[in-house]
């Protein structure tokens, strides 16, 4: 019954199929109270000539090894549901936890999906074979992860909607080096986040309230390899990790860590259900990420500095006020929002100005997952 | 391309959507080789597209590209970088309290 408009010969036929499909979708939606979630990925463009100019010959040996490993696709068979995927009692789940967990799944799915869109675009627009091959492989992994999360969402009665495809979308721009810093960090911190939850649940299986966590170990190995690839890319050009760029690296580290702190605190029930203290979890993830990024970044953040935890707390409080101000509206809402924004900026500056810890970068950046 | 004026062009495109367990992805490719620059906007015409679960759908569509003016392109190049944080898995939710 799932005929698609692509099969239609005439416009009328196409519309008829559309209508039938819509009816089917809405019936299905009513039947299982399907909740429609619009994925909202971002669209990026960058300096593709600069990407093409990358020469990996200085890291060739490590590069070829990594690419060969990604081509062999050790995780190919991993993302399948098997007997480990036990039944999830979505109806019996605490509504607050359910909401937060679904939000977690949707944001993860969107991130994988956006990564896929970005990597695919880089693959398509580039002409340097090393680079296009890498981005093709990474796009494959991201699409696979997105598919896996999508399936978990479907089970929960949440249907992703790709309506953004036919909406007007604006393409923003990132300099290639910012893509390296941000994606490198997001892959490595992604690894640290997934493995920290996985190891914690190995010790405390009673907190594993959904089977998807059992897949986190191999999953995060994909994130790990992607991070390795970006580390090698950065290694090809020493300028990327020296001089004024060290300040950019510090900026990205501070921004990524503090964003994670603020966002994670939006999901208290999720962390309680996992049996982790959100601050403990954050610190564990930052510690691992700092250790990993020593492979390429000449500095790490001093996350044990007295101003660190305090700054994060202030940033989070300011963020709550901004949201409250926005929700309230009017002049008093605007004032609350503006005051909150000023405090958030101040908190960020306070975090950014904590002296960083210097690090002697090794000659070869390659690492293996060890956590 | 003017400093302040926008140009509009049409381009045929192929939209591919995979809604399979193994892969969830969606890509738009311009069939005439049109290239997107910073600040450009793209609208794919026609009804919403969604592949039924388990299938891959590929459709030929028409798209309109709204070219950014020179000034807008420059502005996007200068400011776009700050949106880079959106690539992180934990930064997508708009709601501050759930």
Structure description:
Helix content of chain A is 63%, strand content 5%. With 371 residues, chain A is mainly α. Chain A folds into 2 domains: 1-31; 32-305, Ribonucleotide Reductase, subunit A, CATH 1.10.620. In chain A, helix 6 packs across helix 10. The longest helix of chain A is centred in the N-terminal third of the chain and has 31 residues, at 95-125. Chain A is globular, with a radius of gyration of 22 Å. With 98 residues, chain B is mainly beta. Chain B has one domain. In chain B, 10% of the residues lie in helices and 37% in strands. Chain B has one helix spanning 70-79; strands at residues 7-19, 24-30, 41-44, 56-67. Chain B has a 4-stranded antiparallel β-sheet, with no helix packed on it. The radius of gyration of chain B is 17 Å and the shape is flat. Classes of the chains: A mainly alpha (371), B mainly beta (98). The interface between A and B is large, with 82 and 57 residues. Chain A: Residues 103-233 form the Rubrerythrin diiron-binding domain. Chain A: It holds the Pfam family Rubrerythrin. Chain A: This is Aerobic magnesium-protoporphyrin IX monomethyl ester [oxidative] cyclase. Chain A: Keywords: Bacteriochlorophyll biosynthesis, Chlorophyll biosynthesis, Iron, Metal-binding, NADP, Oxidoreductase, Photosynthesis. Chain A: Pathway: Porphyrin-containing compound metabolism; bacteriochlorophyll biosynthesis (light-independent); Porphyrin-containing compound metabolism; chlorophyll biosynthesis.
Kindly give the count of domains of chain B. 1
Structural class of chain A: mainly alpha
Multimeric status of the protein: heterodimer
Q: In CATH, what is the class of the largest domain in chain A?
A: Mainly Alpha
Instruction: Strand order, main sheet of chain A: write it out.
Output: 1-3
Form type of chain A: globular
| Mean pLDDT reading of chain B | 83
Number of domains of chain A: 2
* Secondary structure tally: strands of chain B: 4
Helix content of chain B: 10-25%
* Radius of gyration of chain A over all CA atoms, rounded: 22 Å
| Low-confidence segments of chain A | 1-11, 21-32
């Amino acid at each position: 019954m799932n005929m698609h408009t692509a099969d239609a010969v005439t416009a009328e036929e196409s519309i008829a199929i559309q209508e039938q499909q819509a009816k089917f979708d809405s019936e299905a939606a009513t039947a299982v109270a399907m909740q429609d979630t619009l994925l909202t990925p971002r669209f990026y463009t960058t300096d593709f000539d600069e990407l093409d100019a990358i020469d990996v010959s200085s890291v060739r040996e490590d590069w070829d090894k990594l690419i060969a490993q990604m081509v062999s696709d050790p995780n190919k068979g991993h993302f399948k549901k098997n007997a480990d995927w036990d039944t999830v009692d979505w109806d019996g789940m605490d509504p607050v936890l359910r909401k937060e967990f679904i939000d977690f799944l949707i944001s993860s799915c969107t991130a994988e999906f956006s990564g896929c869109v970005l990597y695919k675009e880089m693959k398509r627009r580039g002409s340097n074979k090393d680079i296009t091959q890498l981005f093709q492989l990474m796009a494959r992994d991201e699409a696979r992860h997105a598919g896996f999360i999508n399936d978990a969402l479907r089970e929960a009665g949440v249907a992703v909607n790709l309506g953004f495809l036919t909406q007007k979308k604006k393409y923003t721009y990132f300099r290639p080096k910012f893509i390296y810093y941000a994606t490198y960090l997001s892959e490595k911190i992604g690894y640290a986040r997934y493995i920290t939850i996985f190891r914690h649940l190995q010790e405390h299986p009673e907190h594993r309230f959904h089977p998807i966590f059992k897949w986190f170990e191999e999953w995060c190995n994909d994130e790990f390899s992607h991070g390795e690839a970006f580390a090698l890319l950065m290694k090809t050009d020493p300028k990327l990790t020296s001089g004024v760029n060290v300040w950019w690296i510090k900026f990205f580290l501070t921004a990524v860590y503090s964003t994670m702190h603020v966002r994670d605190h939006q999901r208290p029930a999720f962390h309680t259900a996992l049996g982790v203290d959100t601050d403990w979890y954050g610190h564990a993830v930052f510690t691992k990420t700092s250790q990993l990024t020593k492979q390429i970044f000449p500095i790490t953040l001093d996350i044990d500095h007295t101003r660190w935890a305090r700054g994060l707390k202030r940033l989070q409080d300011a963020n709550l006020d901004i949201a409250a101000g926005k929700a309230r509206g009017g002049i008093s809402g605007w004032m609350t929002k503006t005051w909150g924004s000023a405090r958030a900026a101040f908190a960020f500056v306070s975090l950014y100005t904590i002296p960083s810890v210097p690090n002697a970068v090794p000659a070869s950046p390659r690492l293996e997952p060890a956590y | 391309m003017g400093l302040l004026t926008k140009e509009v062009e049409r381009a045929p495109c192929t939209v591919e959507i995979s809604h399979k367990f193994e892969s969830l992805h969606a890509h738009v490719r311009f069939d005439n080789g049109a290239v997107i620059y910073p600040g450009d906007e793209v609208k794919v015409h026609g009804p919403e597209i969604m592949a039924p679960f388990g299938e891959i759908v590929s459709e030929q569509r028409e798209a309109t590209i709204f070219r950014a003016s020179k000034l807008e392109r420059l502005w996007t190049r200068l400011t776009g970088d700050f949106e880079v944080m959106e690539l992180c898995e934990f930064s997508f939710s708009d709601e501050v309290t759930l």
